[in-house]
Amino acid sequence: MRNLEYPLDWEAVFTYVGEDGFLKPIDGGGWRDVHHVHNREEFFRAYDQTRDLCMVYQKAVHFTEYFRCYVVGRKKVRIMAYDPRRPHTERYVENPPPAAKELLRRIRQDAVLLCQALGYDFNTVEFAVENGVPYAIDFMNPVPDADLHSIGQANFDWIVKEVADLAIAKAKKTLRAPELRWAGFLGGEAAAKATKKRPVAKKKVKTEAIKPM
Questions:
Q1: Which domains does the chain have, with CATH numbers?
Q2: pLDDT for the residue 211
Q3: What is the model's pTM?
Q4: Where are the beta strands (DSSP E) in the chain?
Q5: pLDDT tens-digit readout, 136-178
Q6: CB 72: neighbour CB atoms within 10 A?
Q7: In the beta sheet, which residues pair with residue 135?
Q8: Closest Cα to residue 21, out of 33, 38, 8?
Q9: Phi first, then psi: what are they for 169, rounded to 5°?
Q10: Cα–Cα distance between 43 and 33 in angstroms, integer?
Q11: Is the pLDDT reported for residue 187 higher than 50?
């Protein structure tokens, strides 16, 4: 709650985030009310247009690779090459180049951890990769686009099957009262185990093909 103060310490904000960033709604979608700013003048010009929206100011990631992931049941992950700079119907990249296996493993792990922490059974998580490091920049989208014409046939078939399997599995389970404690919301022991650091062997970088559309 430390950022709920008035007036805001803008100097501290710019020192921490920088002046090249994105000002966007905390729960927006479709790039509505998203502003890419490059200096303080642009920031305050955009800020004055935000009305009563609750906004987030996020450092710009100058990515060389970008991935959008479907996560179903907090376990299954579909990694898709994605380019947010393209028109909406062309953002899912067909026949992308192979990506490093260790990078994809990290993306899968982080996508699952985020959904476990948020309690989302269906979500998309987007990662922008800069200097080999994946940054989760958009991960609160429990009603993502799943239209055949925008995500492609292969991705559409995958999401329909996995969501159907999830719905059937939940229907077969005995109903129980939710655990209204922080441990329950944050994944409890499962999340704690998953966050343990794994040693990374210094080997030649391997690549793995991203599934085509």
A1: 10-59 (no CATH), 65-194 (3.30.470.20)
A2: 62
A3: 0.78
A4: 21-25, 35-37, 55-59, 65-72, 76-81, 99-100, 122-130, 133-138, 207-208
A5: 999 989 889 999 998 999 999 999 999 999 999 999 987 777 7
A6: 21
A7: 128
A8: 38
A9: -60, -40
A10: 13
A11: yes
